[in-house]
Design goal:
443 residues, alpha/beta, Rossmann fold, 2 domains, six-stranded mixed beta sheet, 17 helices, 51% helix
């Protein structure tokens, strides 16, 4: 079974979307091969639930961060090679020979371009194999014990094939039609399955190169996954991966303190911090680098969030009712004794303060009894935190402060222990002179 989540969570955290502005997916741009792009998409949509598999993937990516070896070739070159190798599908060489003879005949009598295209594909494939051989030999240096080592060595062994070496030796010469047919037979028939396997290896190496480069450029860390641990999530210096120069914070959720209760004024940074945390959890289960200095975590069954819950005009749902349904959905999952990460940002903000207070306190107290799960809950109704602290012993209280500079609120975005006492809504309203505008006292 895979790591559980849903569309609402992916949208809340802006995880997917190659061309979507500031999505986490878009950070990992620059993949050369189409196969590498497919692998990236598959990893983003299928996070892992096995600590060993996560740590194995982490060890591979870490090597590529450290070695900084440039991936060979361009997207256009790889497209040509993949069309040529993949188009044959290991068919019998006589069938290929007949097709090539037909193309040559059509070139002679009708200037058909297919024969010249075939020649270009053969030459491009020879050039790719030359680059591949040099690249793999350089890559394997220092790879002792890495999970990819054996596959790299298999690729080198294939490229050391006597017949293939003979082909590579003639790669820069003008080849006769007879030689071209011989090479085509070797590439698309005799070694077709092995070469397709080699291409798949290069798809993975392409992806690994990009992930390693991004980890290095952005100073991301590699998470450590555990099967069982008192620590559910420990993050040192976590920040939002899509915000350059973002403020970092330390956060920890344990089995004995499984609720992280966050307070702070509007604009203090609660939502961004919660998204940063959620993205880190998701990326860690992918085995990808995380925007933090350190991360250790116990593998979870899944994650659900409620951050930007929209109303639904078509179904007649108000914002508040949409929130209620979302909390109900999460409650149903939590009740199944799963090990989940749950993020609730400003619970029940679509109703009046009294109902929001009662509902937030009641839901949080009920969740507190689900010790297998990890909860990150925020509110600006500070009285909830005060009452929660009297009744529950498994809550960590933290807040994001507001610092007044005269009458102007400023924000540090740095976590502090405890519950905020900040209430600056009217100060902001007065600073914008909204009441004066309504009364007509200013133009």
């Amino acid at each position: 079974m895979s790591f559980e989540t849903d569309k609402q969570t992916l949208d809340d955290l802006n995880i997917l979307g190659k061309y979507k502005n500031d999505s986490v997916y878009s950070i990992f741009g620059g993949i050369v091969t189409r196969g590498g792009e497919r692998m990236l998409e598959n990893m983003f949509t299928h996070p892992l639930k096995d600590a060993e598999a996560i740590n194995r993937r982490v060890s591979i990516f870490r090597y590529f961060k450290d070695c900084k070896l440039k991936f060979p070739g361009t997207p256009e070159e790889y497209d040509i090679v993949e069309q040529y190798i993949g188009g044959a599908s290991g068919k019998h060489w006589i069938f290929n020979l007949m097709l090539l003879g037909q193309m040559k005949f059509m070139e002679i009598i009708g200037h058909d371009p297919r024969y010249k295209l075939w020649q270009e594909q053969v030459r491009a494939t020879i050039l790719f194999l030359e680059k591949a051989k040099q690249y793999l030999r350089e890559l394997v240096k220092g790879m002792s014990g890495n999970p990819l080592e054996e596959r790299i060595k298999e690729g080198i062994s294939l490229l050391d094939n006597k017949l293939l070496n003979h082909l590579l030796e003639h790669g820069d010469r003008k080849l006769s039609m007879d030689k071209m047919f011989q090479f085509d037979r070797l590439l698309r028939c005799q070694l077709n399955k092995e070469l397709l396997k080699l291409l798949n290896l290069f798809h993975e190496l392409d992806l690994c190169t990009v992930v390693g480069r991004i980890a290095s450029e952005r100073n991301f860390c590699f998470p450590v996954a555990c099967r069982e641990n008192e620590i559910s999530m420990k993050l040192v210096g976590v920040r939002h991966p899509a915000i350059m120069g973002a403020i970092s914070n330390d956060m920890e959720i344990t089995k004995s303190k499984n609720i992280f209760f966050l307070t702070g004024a509007n604009m203090a940074g609660k939502s961004t911090l919660m998204k940063s945390f959620g993205i880190a959890v998701y990326m860690a289960h992918m085995g990808f680098p995380v925007a933090a200095k350190e991360m250790e975590f116990t593998v979870q069954d899944g994650m659900y969030t409620s951050i930007n819950v929209p109303d639904n005009i078509n179904l007649g749902y108000s914002h508040f009712y949409a929130e209620v349904l979302r909390v109900k959905k999460v409650a149903e999952e939590v009740s199944k004794s799963k090990r989940l990460v749950v993020i609730f940002d400003e619970l029940f903000k679509g109703t009046n303060v009294k109902d929001a207070y009662d509902a937030t306190l009641a839901v949080t107290e009920a969740l507190a009894k689900r010790r297998a799960c990890s909860f990150l809950i925020s509110t600006h109704i500070i009285e909830v935190g005060q009452d929660l602290g009297r009744d529950c012993d498994n809550v960590t209280f933290a807040y994001l402060p507001t610092v007044m500079e005269g009458k102007v609120p400023t924000y540090t975005y740095k976590l502090r222990e405890g519950i905020t006492s900040d209430k600056h809504g009217m100060i902001i309203i007065n600073n914008e002179r909204i009441i004066d505008i309504i009364r007509g006292k200013i133009s």
